Amino acid sequence: MGSCDARVCEAHPWQADREAREKEPLGRVMSSESGPIRILSVDDHPLIRQGVTGLIAVQADMKLIAEAGNGREAIEQFRLHRPDITLMDLQMPQMSGLDAISAIRGEFPEARIIVLTTYAGDVQALRALRAGAQAYLLKDTLHKELLGTIRAVHAGKKSLSPEVSYQLAEHATDEALTAAEVRVLRLISEGHANKEIAAQLALSEDTVKGQVRSILAKLGAKDRTHAAMLAFRRGIIEF
């Protein structure tokens, strides 16, 4: 199941009841004395940030206070504004969202962070949750789920998109790839043959062949190309 060997039982308690969340009166998640929920939006795509801005602008109980285009800027903006909620993309230049989550939570353990990403991969989701994110949403559900999730996380709850929960459940009992197998898989995805991989990693070709067989078996892949595709989809290796 990739370099992360966590099991779905760790993630299931974090799945919030979306219908109940959407129907929940605002007074239960925010009192009039506390002011609006202060939000930091982090994404390297301006159009995504614009979409988030538009959704938040018409909410009486929310206020967008800052934006950032990469992980380094996210840390700087968090230190400056101390938002109630941070919306964090994962794939960004200079510093990834995953590294930014770890850094922010290391400095501010009370930080509440919602991942907004294109990728539903179970391994990537578990990495984000382990780094300290309280919720993991897909960008294609932004209009349906974002506002309710912001209110839920602000109220101390945790949440996963249904598709992410399904991926976690599907791979809960999978045997994890070793770190060595992930290195081999990354080189496979770059188009290297076994002989080239062996030379790069200072291994025998027979050792590499054995690792490839193990990778295919653990991922349930038909061949090397299929294994690389599954690894990208699940977040075991990144684009």
What integer is the average pLDDT?
Answer: 86
Q: Major sheet: order of its strands? A: 2-1-3-4-5-6
Number of domains: 2
**Radius of gyration, Cα only, in angstroms?**
20 Å
Q: Tell me the fraction of residues in β-strands, as a range.
A: 5-15%
Structural class call reads alpha/beta
What is the fold-level CATH name, i.e. the topology of the largest domain? Rossmann fold
The assigned CATH architecture of the largest domain is 3-Layer(aba) Sandwich
What is the CATH C level class of the largest domain, in words? Answer: Alpha Beta
Task: Please characterize this protein's 3D structure.
The chain is of the alpha/beta class and 239 residues long. It has two domains: 163 residues, Rossmann fold (3-Layer(aba) Sandwich); 56 residues, Arc Repressor Mutant, subunit A, CATH 1.10.10. The chain has eleven helices and six strands. A six-stranded parallel β-sheet has the order 2-1-3-4-5-6, with helices on both faces. Helix 2 links the parallel strand 1 and strand 2. Helix 8 crosses helix 11. The two termini are 18 Å apart.
